[in-house]
Automatic annotation (TrEMBL):
It comes from Nicotiana attenuata (Coyote tobacco). The keyword S-adenosyl-L-methionine does not apply. Is involved in the conjugation of reduced glutathione to a wide number of exogenous and endogenous hydrophobic electrophiles. Its main location: cytoplasm. This is Glutathione S-transferase.
């Protein structure tokens, strides 16, 4: 088996998506922590378009962008599938993955802006969470695809843990039990799954890191 190496950065959801996928598949890999910078030579070489980690090496092959990497992992190692077998269910999973990619940026915008821009991002985040609650988590399901974690759960991985910390930093509370009972039930199930629970960043350390990053971003803008 060709060697698998993952280069990523601490407290970065995109890095953790790939860690979770590799762990769920039972794939041995080496993790290399990189500098949290869009000027890192490795990321400039292998992801010049978006300038961000993670970067996965499988032998001599290199891939970037977390959801692209997850698709590659799924195609390369079929055990413990992240996508359903049924073509319609697979298509719907990819729909929600795209939704997460297209809409999830509003959480980041809420994190690194203030004033009217932040208020708009908070509104957009609430709208996104409402759609997830009402359309994606229908029925009595532990996870988006049913009884086990799949690619959609990993795509929405920013909601558990990361959104909770961002809420504390920004000073807002969005995930209220009366508004999002299904979503909060999923958050609990997701974070209690062994692979996820054992591979989450320390909450206090992440809070300090993200708070400092936000202050740096706001001071430079």
């Amino acid at each position: 088996m060709e060697e698998v190496k993952l280069h990523g950065t601490c407290y970065n959801l995109f890095t953790y998506r790939v860690i979770w996928a590799l762990k769920l598949k039972g794939i041995p890999f080496d993790y290399i922590e990189e500098e949290h910078s869009d000027k890192c030579p490795l990321v400039l070489k292998y992801n010049p378009a978006f300038k961000r980690f993670p970067v996965l090496f499988h032998g001599k092959k290199a891939l970037s962008e977390s959801m692209v990497i997850l698709e590659y992992i799924e195609d390369t190692w079929p055990q413990n599938p992240l996508l359903p077998i049924d073509p319609i269910d697979r298509a719907m999973s990819r729909f929600w993955v795209k939704f997460a990619g297209d809409k999830g940026h509003c959480i980041g915008t809420m994190y690194y802006t203030i004033g009217e821009k932040q208020e708009k991002a908070i509104k957009e985040t609430m709208e996104m969470l409402t759609i997830i609650e009402e359309k994606a988590l229908v029925g009595e399901k532990e996870f988006f695809g049913g009884e086990k974690i799949g690619i959609v759960d990993l795509a929405f991985g920013i909601i558990p843990h990361w959104l909770e910390v961002i809420e504390d930093i920004v000073g807002v509370k969005l995930l209220e039990p009366h508004s999002f009972p299904r979503l909060l039930n999923w958050v609990q199930n997701f974070k209690e799954e062994t692979v996820i629970k054992e591979n989450l960043p320390n909450r206090d350390d992440m809070f300090v890191f993200l708070k400092n990053q936000r202050e740096m971003l706001l001071s430079s803008s």
